[in-house]
Amino acid sequence: MSSLKSLISKYIAVEISGNKALNGQLIDVGNDLIVLHNGQDYYYIPTLHIQYCYEAPIPNDLINDSSTPVFQPEHEDLSLRKILTNAKGIFVEIKVTNNQTFHGYVTSILNNYFSFYTPVNKTMYISLQHLKWLIPYVNNQTPYSLSNKFLPVNPNSIPLARTLEVQLEKLNDELIIINNGERNEQIGKVKSIDSNFIELISAKGLVTSVGLRHVKTIHLP
């Protein structure tokens, strides 16, 4: 991490998995993530997804709100798990799939996944290894400007297992959506799960095997 720490306080360009480019001031470098400020939002980005980064020229029209990071653990090393713990119950934007972001709040953090509540998809299970960024909301915003009655404090009704693989076993025979249905093959009823694949039955009764290591998000329709 020493090479990244040498860029702290400098304006940098970052490319993350999915060919997504971000620019901003590097605020901090933790054990497994960085904090980037683009002048308006603070991006908490796991280093796992950083393809490359370099110092970049500061744009003339940069807006800087001079605020401080929302999640800044005192006297502790910054880490993804600590940031997620601090984010519980706070409205955030997360990016997991290549083309979409989700808006809601973290409800639980487990060994290799976390549960996330969004007004659109309700409870989702998000793989930790596929989380690309987290952005805290500011100024008491709520997702889609909804009132709190649409944002329950304790939305989970299914007991959570310690790992995503075991949690999937609880969904046997349930209709689920993987990766927010990026492909038709990722929507179906769970037939079986083993250590590497989950078998889904499609709307027309075809069985598709989905590699577990490629499962980014799961939710029930």
Task: Describe the model.
- The protein has helices spanning 2-5, 80-87, 164-169, and strands at residues 11-16, 20-29, 33-37, 42-46, 50-55, 92-95, 101-109, 113-118, 122-127, 133-136, 175-178, 187-193, 197-201, 207-211, 217-219.
- The model has no long low-confidence stretch (mean pLDDT 89).
- The protein is mainly β and 221 residues long.
- The strands form 2 sheets. Strands 10-6-7-8-9-15-11-12-13-14 form a 10-stranded antiparallel beta sheet. A 5-stranded antiparallel beta sheet has the order 4-3-2-1-5, with no helix packed on it.
- β13 (197-201) and β14 form a beta hairpin.
- It is globular.
Give a short overview:
The protein has 221 residues and is mostly beta strands.
Q: What's the structural blueprint in terms of helices and strands?
A:
Elements: H1 2-5, E1 11-16, E2 20-29, E3 33-37, E4 42-46, E5 50-55, H2 80-87, E6 92-95, E7 101-109, E8 113-118, E9 122-127, E10 133-136, H3 164-169, E11 175-178, E12 187-193, E13 197-201, E14 207-211, E15 217-219
Antiparallel strand pairs: 1-2, 1-5, 2-3, 3-4, 6-7, 6-10, 7-8, 8-9, 9-15, 11-12, 11-15, 12-13, 13-14
